[in-house]
Structure formats: C-alpha cells, structure tokens
C-alpha cells in the first residue's frame, strides 16, 4: 500500500515532465494526462477502501525517522477528500480535451502538463504529515496555478493575476515565518509531534501560532477578510482552469485548516472562527447578488460556501467537523459542475454576461438541466447533496446551541437560492436576442465530450446525495480521528 | 537567538512590506524579495545557536548546528528565486500591454460600483 502512496505523488510529476517535452504530439499528452489521472483516481479509491478497513497508511520517504524526514499519511479524511479531488480533476481534463479547439480553451501544450503538476501538489497537500512539506505542496499548487491563470497573457488575466500572485506570495512568506516560530518553540514540524507538543505550549504562544496559521491557510481558503483575490482572478481564466481552481484550491486551504487546528487542539479559537464563518458566508453571498456575470456570481459563491465549512470547524465538535468534511466532499463536484456549465454557456453564447444571454432553456434544454440540478444543490434544496450537508452542519450548530450562526447559515441559503435564480432567469429564461434565432450550430465532436464530462460530474454529485448515510459515517470516523489524535500519532511514530 | 538577527529580520520585513504595498510591480517584486530574505533568516534563527558543521563534519553531536532549518531555508530560497522570475515575466507582459507595470483596477468591479452610485442618485 505504501508504494501506491508514493506513486500518487511521483507519477503525475514524471508524466508532466514528459508532457512538457512532447511538443506537437498532442495524443501523447492526452494519453499521459488522462491515463495518469484515471490511475490516480483508481489508486485513491483503493486507498480509501484499504484505510476504511485496515486503518491509516503511513509512508516514510527514504525510511527516515519521522521527526526528521518526510512522512505521507493517508488517514480517513485524506483518503476521502483525495478520491473526490482526483475524480474531479479527471473529469475536468476530459472537458478540457473536448474544449481544446475553441477560443475559450486553454493552451493544451501547457495546461495538460501543468494540471498534472497541480495534481501532484494537491496529493502532497492532502497526504503530507509535516508542515514544511505542506509548504512545498502549496508552492507546487500555486506556481502551476499562477501559470495556468496567466499563460494566455490577456490583459484581464495579467491584471488579476498580479493580485492573485501577490496575495498568495505574501501568505507563503507568512507561512515560512510561522514555520520558523513553530520550529523554534517545539523543535519539530511533524504534525503528529506538533499534535502532542503545541497543546503543551503557553497560551499566548499557542494562540499566536493558531492565529498565524489561521491567516496563512485562511488566505488560501479565501475566508473573510482575505478573499479579495478570488472573485477577481477566477473568472478571467479559461473555464477548465477556473473549474479546477473553484472546486479544489480553496478547499485545500479549508482542509489544512481543519487538519492543523483540530489536531493541535485550537478549540479556544472556536468563537473567532465562527464569527469569521458568518462574515464569510454573508459577504460572499452579498457579493454574488451584486454581480451580473455567470462566472463572477459563481466565484462569489465559492467564498460564501467556504463559510459553511468554516462553521463546522468553528464548532469544534464531532458533528461539526464531520459536517465540515462532508460539506467539503459535497462541494467539490457541485462547484466544478457549475463552472463547467458556465463554460458551456460561454462557448455557446460567446459571453457569460447575464444581460447578453437569454432563453437558453428553449434552445439548450440539456444545458438548463445540467445547471439547474447543481444550482439547487448549492442552495441546499432537498433531496440534493447540498441539503444533507447543510442539514448536518445546522444540526451540529443546534447541538452546541450556537443560535446566531445557525440562523445566518439558514438565511444565507435563501440568498444563495436568490442569486441562482438570477442566473436562471438571466440565462435560461426570456426570449434571447435575434441573433440566437439562427439554428443551433452543428455540434463538434468535442462538444459531446464536454457535455458528457459535465454530466458525469453531475451524476457523481447526485450519487453523493444518494449514498449520504455511509458518507456521513465515514465523515464522523474521520472527525473522531482528528479530535483524538492518539491514533494518528501512533500510526506516524511507531 | 541573537539580537542582531532579530533586528535584521525586523528591518527587512518593514522595508519589504512597505515596498509590497506599492502599485508598481517592480517595487512589489523587490518587496517580496526582501520579505523572503526576512523569512529565511527567521528560519535560520529558529535553528538556535550556530555550531560546528553538521553531517560532513566530525564534531560531537551536541556542538553541531541544527541542519533541518538550513534545509528548509535552502528549499525556500530556491522557490522564491523561481517566483521572482515569474513576477518579472508578469511585469514585462504588463509593460508590453499597457506601457507601465502598474496594477490596474478591476474594471467589472468599478462598473458595478458606478452603477450602484448612479442608482443612488436616481432614488
């Protein structure tokens, strides 16, 4: 099993390297990217099954003592999120292959291999057992995301790319300084050892470390007030890239926030995190209501949804953290589908501005269905996955009697629905302009692949709702492992 | 941790943050370079007292300096080197497009703000 864990990190890197030098031979790149991602998804599935029955898998790279060397730890939470993430990247890559020859597509020579570098970073970020490797994983993800975001060199991309790079570079520098503080005060960066040593530190120092990393990971996760880079930069990138970023990148921030703060027992920060969660939800949705472009509305929704995950973390109870994990799993495919549909709309209509589109439901009923289902799920309408995930969080909030956050979370759902209706009426209803009266273009073969990939992702997100019972059970077990880190510590150190 | 090192880290950070808040990408880049140096020095300071050469030397273990933060620092230096190059490329592209390297406003955002203002006047 440990060999598989190593492969997950190394193979995407190697494939990316070959992809970069493959030159004009596009089929080589396609086989490499799709093959690698399909393989990674399969391995993630095997790992999840194994971890679920046998317990945590630990890989010590180079067989070093965990106090000094790099360890990769696959526990239940990591395996669960990893599977969803790998499957999502695979679907998006299929969509990208379909979209290739349109004006909206990313440069295939760069985007395929870079997506693999990003994948490698994502795997590393989920599995790493120490803070420094986490830093390296973040850098891997960020460097490839910088290039993916700006490689077309359009004016808007360069402008928003600057904000994106500056914010994230600053957060990375803070991360390094935080690492220095952690190392100076505990003598280690290994998460298992930190889970033992940080709770023993003096309160001011402990809170300082907790707050510092709340800022660092919070910038990656786009929580209030550190989100300004997100709604600006995401909509400018090609669809496939935005879809991966929207589905995954901020969620990695949330993931490490949950992992680090729960493992090191930062319960004292709970009220602060809950306050930030409420502000993130409300301001994200308020921003979405003000926008009138499909991609920008969806980008603001990423922020508001981050608030829900943060709410689960802020409760610091078993149900809360399980809720946050399950919400994370539900959110990744749903958000990705919505952005892919945004891409299909953009490709069909040549724009994603609400006032320039209309009546798409008549001309493209399939597209309307593809949008409506995940949109309802995002707003939390039963029986979709968004409903059960939100219900779990609200339930956890009521259990701990934190009324304000529950009220805000519920009110926020309504506002989410309102802005989804805004997209719906803007894009799918109405008569549309005269130009669209022309018959539908002949569909290119690529178009089928794009719609197919979107549909597959949608079916996956519906499957999450259908299998919510077992998923919730997994979430609870993962949360229990985090709250009582003794099993984690034992698995890593022994 | 030596006072000199702490002062140098502090000085680099303050100058770095000042430069980083600039609208010009070249200044921002210099700011990030200085901030990166500050972070690397902080990592070095986290290693404690300087001692004998680790790994390749033959001094007793108690007298060695801690090699781990140095390894961190090296990795961080390599990464920040690459990112500096990327920022330079970005600044060059911006200069090609607009003639300078200033960060532009978010146009969509400005538009929505103006619309809201106009609506306010109507009411």
Structure description:
The complex is a heterodimer of chains A (494) and B (123). Chain A has one domain (2-493). Chain A has helices at residues 2-21, 26-54, 76-99, 108-127, 131-150, 155-186, 191-197, 203-221, 229-233, 239-263, 270-290, 294-315, 318-349, 360-363, 365-379, 385-399, 403-428, 445-466, 468-483, 486-493; strands at 57-60, 71-74. The relative contact order of chain A is 0.11. By secondary structure, chain A is mainly alpha-helical. In chain A, helix 8 packs antiparallel against helix 10 (239-263). Chain A has a two-stranded antiparallel sheet. Chain B is mainly α. Chain B has a single domain, classed as Helix Hairpins. In chain B, 72% of the residues lie in helices and 0% in strands. Chain B contains four helices and no strands. Chain B has helices at residues 3-20, 25-46, 67-98, 107-122. The longest helix of chain B is centred in the C-terminal third of the chain and has 32 residues, at 67-98. Chain B starts with a helix and ends with a helix.
**Which protein chains make the most extensive interface, counting residues with beta carbons within 8 Å of the other chain's beta carbons?**
A-B, 37 and 39 residues
Main sheet: strand order of chain A: 1-2
Q: Kindly give the count of domains of chain B.
A: 1
State the low-pLDDT regions of chain A, or none. 436-440
Q: Residue share in helices of chain B?
A: over 70%
| Span between termini of chain B | 62 Å
Number of separate helices of chain B: 4
The fold-level CATH name of chain B is: Helix Hairpins
- The shape of chain B, in one word, is elongated
Shape of chain A: globular
Rg on CA atoms of chain A, Å: 21 Å
- Which band does the percent of strand residues of chain B land in? under 5%
- The appropriate CATH architecture of chain B is Orthogonal Bundle
